[in-house]
């Protein structure tokens, strides 16, 4: 029976769901060969830290965290010294979207701390951080480094990165990747320009609806600027062998009209957005006129090195056009699969 | 640098492609931390065996095999004794569809030989063989057993079993699995009843076309009886926790008309099949009359324990109906994914 110690940072939407699933997993796997021992549950302003490395009881961890006056571990020194004291291997689960925390991954990995995270920042920022992370992680010539797992940085729970890695590791060559990588963008265009049934909703109304349903960030501009999709595409491109220096070093089409970039609030932005509905309607009608529909996608082409994020038209019979709700879809075109993409789709 | 020894049995379509990919892999990974050493290339009547465990040169292996007068290793004793002599771990790659060879998996695994195979027989025959395989394979309480990998037994190269295992291992609950698991069945119904464009082809003509294109077994009845799909569904059902005793212990709809089961040859069968085209046309028209289309699918429902293989109708806008060519599609409905299935599709 191996004990594995887990430090969990971040208790937002993803973090809370992770704590729930981990708690259920621990309860129902008491006799598993690996016993998971939570030793840190932390948010930006406070933490619950098990000083003697005994397990934190997860069902009351959030309540205890809300009452806690303990400071979070400071990175890297205090955290490393605490992790080194653990009587077994430590996994840091970073459920934040904090770029500062991600900058400490190399130091953690070098010291044998494992990292599992949906935080895109470490893998989609400047390529020097990416290089430093993978140079510090466990590998054939670095058996003392920690493992780094970031499957959920693209496609959330869908098997996207594992599929891509497996294709490459077994000798296939990726030629093109194309898909809808944002649940928000998926919902917006599946609702604004659904296939089959006509929709008369205006784009600005759909954005308001998406925000009301909780499908967007509090300020929808954080979705509409395309940066979230660009970060995911950066990760896919790098894994496919393309040297993408930063998440903005390729064309990204923003859906925020220039004059509204500086709107003082989300509400002011949404009020102004209606003025641009006619332009969006035109794009939709132009696509319909040639039997197509518009979708907001990311694309990469390994041979030409081209990477881009933005609006494209698709045949109404294509899997991308037929997507429902806020699902993601990712198509891998490879040497082995030829013209028939390997497609993964589902809730992102 | 770890040396891993590989014994390859079977040089049919799958076996030949495997040898080609392995040869390319070895050529382009000379400095990898794991060096793969082919020591056996075998077909049913002859073998090339490296007596001193030096690597067989794959580019000429098939020619040498064609000229070889060496008998194949006999299982289990001679093979085990040869494998035990190897100066490292041995992986048996079974590229046959031989049930007799599969029956030796437990003895091989117990002796630490690893198995990687697309051969469905070991995993879809009587459940006692399944139980015996997994009791003999490496596990928490059996660290000396060999690993067994059979990803390609369902969905070929598509990440189907890995996705299912990952969902279960991370605590998700599978509720339903549904899909098109046979490239042949996919092609037949995508061609006979395509969505969008009408088709006037008769079912028997489509079967002849599929055979001419090499999409069916030499005798198409080996596809049309549904057994291949039933074996795949048996594997998925067992991994999902259902106790399926044999691959025929649930309803399987055959597409072979009763009187033609005993037709003396494939040609005689195909000539007779035309007499049943009207019945198939009716099924197609009945589906179209309610805005649907017919597809040959496998389904399992974990809660009710229901497993079945056969024709069903699907909305023309569903991903199953919209499939192209001979692609496979597998939809996983789980507790976490709710009504939005996690879908994997592509060439099977």
Automatic annotation (TrEMBL), chains A, B:
Pathway: Amino-acid biosynthesis; L-threonine biosynthesis; L-threonine from L-aspartate: step 3/5; Amino-acid biosynthesis; L-methionine biosynthesis via de novo pathway; L-homoserine from L-aspartate: step 3/3. Its EC number is 1.1.1.3. GO terms for biological process: homoserine biosynthetic process; methionine biosynthetic process; threonine biosynthetic process. Residues 159-348 form the Homoserine dehydrogenase catalytic domain. It is an enzyme of class 1 (oxidoreductase). NADPH binds at residues 96, 120. Its cofactor is a metal cation. It catalyses: L-homoserine + NADP(+) = L-aspartate 4-semialdehyde + NADPH + H(+). NADP(+) binds at residues 10-15. The active site is at residue 232. Catalyzes the conversion of L-aspartate-beta-semialdehyde (L-Asa) to L-homoserine (L-Hse), the third step in the biosynthesis of amino acids that derive from aspartate (the aspartate family of amino acids), including methioinine and threonine, the latter of which is a precursor to isoleucine; production of homoserine leads to a branch-point in the pathway as it can either be O-phosphorylated for processing to threonine, or O-acylated for processing to methionine. This is Homoserine dehydrogenase.
